[in-house]
Design goal:
alpha+beta, Elongation Factor Tu (Ef-tu), domain 3, 5-stranded antiparallel β-sheet
Amino acid sequence: MRQAEWNDITWGVANKQMAHLKSIKISQNLKTEEQEDQTTGNKTVIKSLEPEVLSISYSASLAVGLDPRGEFEMLKKCAGMQDVFILGGQKISKTNFSLDEIELSNTVLDNNGRILSGDLTLNFNTDNNSSSKGGKGSKSKSSKAKKKGSLSLTPEDYAKARALVK
């Protein structure tokens, strides 16, 4: 069951792993400017809209088939990439979202320093100028094609993860 997707990365529940979104936040602010009006005093003029900002969070745990550290490393490679964000089968914006920030927090470690579980927070925005000539969010389609889906574990990795939980 797919809950959301971006850049060939999916969140939801699958046969051997679970990356279920815990929260999603979308916001957009107005760009305003204060101008002095000689008859009435100061006046606020709305110039335009700021880029949309999207923040999602989900948990990764070896117990549910996601290696938190591996997921973090995979997502770092996607930083700056642009794509539509699909939630519940529908685009949530007319423009592409660029991945700007990846955070791994609330980690639980084993005695050997391996990360057993943690929360991942991803921050995106639509301030990408749709240009492929450099700047923020300008990685090419060929670069995008190399980054596929959430981390998949081999049967051996899955067995190791299950043994850690017991």
